[in-house]
Amino acid sequence: xxxxxxxxxxxDVSVHGxxxxxxxxxxxxxxxxxxxxxGNCITFMDFLDNSRKIASYLQGLGIKKGEYVSIFSxxxxxxxxxxLGVIGSGAVVTPCKDYYRENEVLYxxxxxxxxxxxxxxxxxxxxxxxxxxLLFLEHIFVIGKSRRYKTVEDILEEATAESLAKxxxxxxxxxxxxxxxxxxxxxxxxxxxxxxAVLLSLQSQFFISGGGTFYDDRxxxxxxxxxxxxxxxxxxxxxxxxxxxQLQKLFEDIEKYQITVATCFTPTVxxxxxxxxxxxxxxxxxxxxxxxxxxxxxxxxxxxxxxYKVTFLAAYGMTExxxxxxxxxxxxxxxxxxxxxxxxxEVKVIDLKTxxxxxxxxxxxxxxxxxxxxxxxxxxxxxxxxxxxxxxFKTGDIGSIDEQGNLCITGRLKEIIKCKGxxxxxxxxxxxxxxxxxxxxxxxxxxADAICGEVPKAFVVKADATLSIExxxxxxxxxxxxxxxxxGGIKFVQSIPKSPTGKIDRVxxxxxx
Length: 513
Fold this sequence. Notes:
The chain contains 16 helices and 27 strands.
């Protein structure tokens, strides 16, 4: 059985046209406070003017509709208006991960072949090292200071928004953003998102829940990062933008700016729970914490509610499908509870063995159908064809839905461990092991076994030096079926490798085994 989240407003406009109109209505109020630049602020009107100037300048360079322009930068307020400006020019913006080295830049740029790159001054050396192999690259503009290249500041002084060409965007078919998948199970794929898909995601409760002031340190190259910025700009909420997560900075910002809503990944929640100095700050303004990226345990939710007196919202989304579900959860909810299916999104569950549709509360692969789903993967027709089944996008995630549309994510199809024909999810084992008071973090993978095919192996970070291998075996053996026992072994490690969104990097774990 499928569940439809309900109807949603569908705007027949471009992303930039919609946001520009909203920006104008918010006037000269402060839009973004940039923590990476000592609290430098930009108003809604200045943001509007800057993004329109960027759009006009790119058109003046001869950048045509549908061509690619990349941004290679860490979080800063310029990133946001450059991104909107690129979209406003008719081009497709393709954000590049800020931690990439030369070979990784070459891989992604080799797919999109951007004619223009806006690069943070701190990453210019990496781009220059790759430049000789980027024969399609025509223009480099530096965000910050540069003596060799034209800067964004130079563009804003030269450009005028009056020369901006008339909008001729087809929202349903024209691509606004080419973002990359996380790459935790293989090479990243370039995900094409239309104007319509982006606008639908901007209406998600994940981004606009609560009121007051919004804290954001999510990387802006990531889907949840750029969508949260655009969503909060359109509703007129002040954003406190940080370059990266640092616990002390988060606490300082909450106290200084009276932040009411914070969005974070699961590792942030874990650090907040374990914080020893939270009592030194006035954190009483914080009312809502929205968490996504990876499941969080019932213990984690309970502790967040106890320590910070907040409403805790969980969410589930992906680059390919936007925000799929969001909603308040408590410690009484199951591990993996991910809120309620969003309006405009239809979800069904497919049995892993029979490949037939499941009933409510039965686990299987999550399929989604929505106008906010990707148009396709750039230059990868095979992956695009494989990703869809009769109009439904196959998420590769395992979970269930109930009659009220509550979604629970329990694992990842590609991560399933198959032992003697039986299947288990690493997330299930992790949710049991993390309950041990002496365990700080854990990751589980399947390892080859001559008799069983695969058996689970756990990588464990100690919270207490006295934790033993026997302690870990004991909590698993007492709580899980025999075939789920850790016959692949247990290895104590200093940390669990994770993506910037908090997902366990099982490719790296396999290299550590």
